Amino acid sequence: MSDFGRRQLARKRREYLYRKSQEHRLAQMQARKERVSTYVEAEKTLPGDVRNLAAKLMLSAQWDDQGPQLAGLMGLDHGGAPSDIDDEYRHAGIDDPKVFITTSHNPSSRLKMFAKEMKLIIPNSERMNRGSFDVKSLLSSAKSNGFTDVIILHETRGRPDQLVVSHLPNGPTAYYTLLDVKLRHDIPDCGTMSEAYPHLIFHNFSTPLAKRIQSTLKFLFPVPKLESVRSLSFINHSDHIIFRHHVANKGEKGMFDSLTEVGPQFTMLCHKIIRGTVEEEKAADVEFVLRPYLNTAHKTLLLSKQMPWNAEDPKKSTKETDMAK
To answer: What is the block-wise mean pLDDT of the chain (325 residues), using blocks of 10 residues?
Structure first.
């Protein structure tokens, strides 16, 4: 590393430590404000450690707004990261993302076709043949050319089975297992794919881990226009993310009356998230690892505590009605 690079890295570290200290100080002040307001509303005597600062804290609390609380209710808090400073996606939305798509070494024809369809799904993406490049060279080239994310597709015996999404320049990296992959030519009556920016539908993502996974997928796509006819659905069902791609059709009166599936189809299972890029897999901190072989793993839902739809089984409801009689 050059002297300029070392000075730049040291400056970034100092800025990060300063921002973290400011965040800790503001968090302590906010906790004191909430504590004082709780005692005042209950008309109780203030504790001695905050009695001298109570007037100043109450005066400062009058200028506080509900922005952070409303952002948390809307699911906009830090993209699933521990804090705003640690959120790698805090600048997302300012510029459109630029995604780099590649495959593993010596890809089969089916994996190449799947990579081409992934390029059609994600706007502003570019696909490049892997060749003999290693991961470090790929990420170095992607960073120097202004890419915001890197997607690497893997296969086993000609069947796509893994998708790696790495956010640049500092991570995170999410590892997904691919299941039930169907390409466009495998789907009957497959429609024509639109190139408009798609609307995104994330259903049944409610836990902090689900919000984190949602961020790794959501910020691959630019902000769509309101009149866009294209939609991508990510549906969580028992921690498996079902992906579907549709285009809306207009009827005789100019209203949208039907949907046409344009493919591809696949199901994703997130099994690992690290706080770093894909080249730092061995050294980066592990944020999440799926452990399916624990005794209670089959009983635990990590992304949501409920199923994506609450439709009752007619046989079950009829049986319960008969038992009640």
So the answer is: 77 79 80 80 78 73 61 49 64 87 95 95 93 90 92 95 92 94 90 90 92 93 91 93 92 80 93 92 90 73 77 45 39
Residue type, 81: A
CA distances from 73 to 66, 206, 233 (A): 11, 11, 22
pLDDT at 210: 93
Q: What's the rounded Cα separation, in Å, for the pair 325 and 319? A: 10
CA separation for the pair 139, 280 (Å, rounded): 11
Q: State the pLDDT at residue 191.
A: 81
Give me the pLDDT at residue 182, please.
94
Beta carbons within 8 Å of 268's beta carbon, 6+ residues apart: 163, 176, 177, 178, 179, 240, 241, 243
d(CA 314, CA 312): 6
Is 88:81 a contact under the CB 8 Å cutoff?
yes
Could you tell me which residues come within 8 angstroms of residue 207 by beta carbon, excluding any fewer than 6 positions away?
A: 302, 303, 304, 305
> Using the 8-state DSSP alphabet, how is residue 47 labeled?
P
CA distances, 82 to each of 79, 130, 283, 301, 305 (Å):
9, 34, 20, 21, 21
Half-sphere exposure of 268 (CA within 13 A, CB side): 24
Burial class (CB in 10 A: 0-12, 13-18, 19+), 53: middle
